[in-house]
Here is the input.
Amino acid sequence: MAVRKGNLMSVRDDVKVLDATLRDGGLCNNFRFTDDFVRTLYKTNIKSGVDYMEFGYKADPDLFNVEEYGPWKFCREEDLRAIVGENISDMKIAVMADVGRCNFRRDFLPKSESVIDMVRVACYIHQIPAALEMIEYFHELGYETTCNIMAVSQAGGYQIEEALAMLAESSVDVIYLVDSYGAFYPENASDMALMYIKAVEEAGKKIGFHAHNNQNLAFANTIDTLSRGVSYLDATVQGMGRGAGNCALELLLGFLKNPKYNLYSVLTFIEKYMIPLRESGVVWGFDLQYMFTGQLNRHPREAMAFTSQKRGDYCEFYKELLDHE
Here is the structure.
């Protein structure tokens, strides 16, 4: 077995925590967070030592009806600045740009004119050439960049190897291993992380991990990939995210030994904002329907429909999924 990087008491300077609550969590409520929620979360993350805060997507308003979503689907510069001003803090601001769902040449300012620090380019494995074009464009504008390759649990190994080789030669700063379907276990998450690290470390790239909690393994997979050398760790407050959600920020901050990370502000935020959000009817988190799609390595869309229909016939739903295997 490969040697772990550090131990349970180690403080690693390469580790960065990214809060994706607004972006992944926004998929649960169409990004309709109040300004008070967003501003307080921003301040909470700063107090907690979080390194990056992802505010949402930079989606193309020509492709999505602006009336159907809150502002964090689009992350306009004026909306960001209304929350963070000039962002006089050590925490960096990130947004996500989906391949094929953003007008990146029109909607991004040069870094010198924007409060955004990092652009996370999300793509499927077959979209790597388009992602590379975007990454080089954002790099030229002055941004830090990541490439988040989604749904790799269903990609062929040779495809992943080719994609990593292409990314190693690019200007990208961080390459994310993304468990889109919550199908990974610590063993194969670690194996994949080591493959990513080996493929790009000579090129000086860092590796990140983004987990989904379909099998209640988001936190376990995150800290196991961390122990193998992954540096950038995604998390969300109370695991708020699409479907079963993500690695919980409070779990991760409570685990990391670096004294810069602090849990108290997050706990206060949960009390004042997350619990009322759940009570208002916003739904996310582990449930059996997501366990099924995770075990079957399937997109959770069917489980999300099951949830929205308020079904409770778990056994029948499981049989339906097996019938479509």
In short: The chain has two domains: 16-279, 288-323. The chain has a mean pLDDT of 97. The two ends are 33 Å apart (CA to CA).
